[in-house]
Amino acid sequence: MPQNYEKPSFKKLLEKLQEDSWQLELLISGFAIFGLFYAIDPINKVFYSSVKSGEIIFSTLYSTIRVFVYIMIFNLILHVILRGLWIGALGLRYVSGDIDYEVLNYSKKFTKYLKRKVGSFDSYIGKLENYCSVIFAISFLLIFYIIAFMFVMAAISLVGHYLIGNDNISNWISKGIGIPLMLFMVVGMFLTCIIHTVKFQG
């Protein structure tokens, strides 16, 4: 018996959801931008407080969060702008239709040049759609990349502070456990980054 995700009706539902996903994208982007703007002041206060108190780990953590918030705001605003341009292009396409170069009655050479440089209006709308979807997906995938990066940095900092840099534990624990554990995390982080980069490019 085939699974639900293998049924044609389920695939049609997914295609329908993909076509209508721009509405959800705009809604989520709007709420996310609103929430991120309100989160800037509390994050800045906590960051400056941790810097004044000399808490290096927390100040680094909050500094990373600040950068992440600003990047997310930029990406989501760019997404909303491109979606607005896409909606405007759809409205213009509905009124004017695709570009008919033959009706313009230009010379063959100039018509060929326009077709090569300008192309189809439908192709332009399709490219805008792809850009919007990619920016939206990358923006929220970035959340998980930043969270993973912060967890790895926090683990490396804890190992360095409590195992390698701790004078209250024996030397063999510091060098025999702390250093291999640190190397394991650093090498694992770089290997994971390289593997994901290769998969993304492939």
**How confident overall, as mean pLDDT?**
77
Strand content bin: under 5%
Radius of gyration: 26 Å
Largest sheet properties: none
Class per helix and strand makeup: mainly alpha
The amount of helix comes to over 70%
Q: Detail the poorly predicted runs.
A: none
Number of domains: 1
Q: SSE order, as H and E?
A: HHHHHHH
N/C terminus separation = 33 Å
Q: How many runs of DSSP E, i.e. beta strands?
A: 0
Overall, the morphology is elongated
Explained architecture:
- The chain has one domain.
- It is built from seven helices and no strands.
- It has 202 residues and is mainly α.
Characterize this entry briefly.
By secondary structure, this protein is mainly α. The chain has helices spanning 8-19, 21-52, 56-96, 101-104, 108-117, 121-164, 171-201.
Entry keywords:
mainly alpha; 202 residues
List the helices and strands and how they pair.
Blueprint: H1 8-19, H2 21-52, H3 56-96, H4 101-104, H5 108-117, H6 121-164, H7 171-201
Helix pairs in contact: 2-3, 3-6, 6-7
